[in-house]
């Protein structure tokens, strides 16, 4: 019983245990360490792994390693080749005939339709198709003009002359001149100019300071 042991005897016991531990360490004997709790335990060969309660388990665990899929965008990938509008238009030229047939079909449906709501939808669709057709023709004309300018530059380079490069403002002037010539041929120049005058008049009116009495 420790209550009947004197303080001197307790000190002697403590010093004796210390010396014994030191001798074991110097002679190379391993000191028995307290058994730690295993991080993972397995019950049998096919049993599930048990995580230690002392180690916090992450909220999201990657159970199976999955290879990440890398998506490829053909518009911005070099493997798809270089975009050339001339080759693209030649390859997909058959789409123009399909669009023409679709437009004719919508026009026929619009003539036969009696429902006002359906008729309005068909009219909007027809307007959209005509706008797309006009935009495509405009782009084609721009490409043809650029190709003709490139041909001229090549001819000048072959002759030993310095090729000229048009500025953006000069290109816009050429486009405007072609537009006016086309409107004059179709007989829509006067209506176009009158609409433009009206738009300019409205803009000038907005810019003027408001007069207060």
TrEMBL record:
Q: Which Pfam families match?
A: RRP36
Q: Tell whether rRNA processing is among the UniProt keywords.
A: yes
InterPro entries, per the entry: RRP36 (IPR009292)
| A Gene Ontology term for the protein's cellular component | 90S preribosome
In terms of superkingdom, the source organism counts as: Eukaryota
Stretch list, region Disordered: 22-54, 188-213
Query: Where does it primarily localize?
Result: nucleus
Chain intervals with Basic residues compositional bias: 194-213
Q: Which UniProt keywords apply?
A: Coiled coil, Nucleus, Ribonucleoprotein, Ribosome biogenesis, rRNA processing
Entry's Gene Ontology BP terms = maturation of SSU-rRNA from tricistronic rRNA transcript (SSU-rRNA, 5.8S rRNA, LSU-rRNA)
Can you tell me which residues the record assigns to a coiled coil? 99-186
Write out the biased-composition intervals (Low complexity): 34-46
Q: Where in the cell is it found?
A: Nucleus, Nucleolus
What assembly does the database describe for this protein?
Answer: Associates with 90S and pre-40S pre-ribosomal particles.
The UniProt family comment states: Belongs to the RRP36 family.
Instruction: Name the job this protein performs.
Output: Component of the 90S pre-ribosome involved in the maturation of rRNAs. Required for early cleavages of the pre-RNAs in the 40S ribosomal subunit maturation pathway.
- What name is this protein filed under? rRNA biogenesis protein RRP36
Give the organism the record lists.
Aegotheles bennettii
């Amino acid at each position: 019983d420790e209550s009947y042991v004197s303080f001197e005897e307790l000190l002697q016991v403590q010093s004796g245990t210390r010396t014994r531990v030191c001798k074991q360490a110097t002679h190379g004997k391993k000191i028995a360490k307290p058994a730690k709790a295993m991080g993972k335990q397995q019950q049998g060969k096919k049993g599930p792994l048990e995580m230690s309660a002392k180690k916090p388990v992450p909220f999201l665990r990657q159970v199976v390693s999955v290879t990440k899929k890398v998506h490829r965008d053909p518009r911005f990938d070099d493997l798809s080749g270089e975009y050339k509008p001339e080759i693209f238009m030649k390859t997909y030229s058959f789409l123009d005939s399909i669009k023409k047939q679709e437009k004719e079909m919508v026009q026929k449906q619009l003539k036969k339709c009696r429902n006002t709501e359906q008729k309005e939808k068909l009219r909007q669709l027809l307007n959209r198709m005509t706008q797309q057709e006009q935009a495509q023709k405009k782009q084609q004309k721009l490409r043809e003009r650029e190709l003709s300018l490139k041909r001229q530059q090549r001819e000048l380079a072959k002759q030993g002359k310095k090729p000229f490069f048009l500025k953006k403002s000069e290109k816009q002037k050429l486009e405007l001149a072609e537009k006016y010539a086309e409107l004059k041929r179709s007989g829509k120049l006067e209506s176009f100019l009158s609409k433009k005058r009206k738009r300019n008049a409205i803009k000038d009116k907005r810019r003027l300071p408001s007069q207060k009495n």
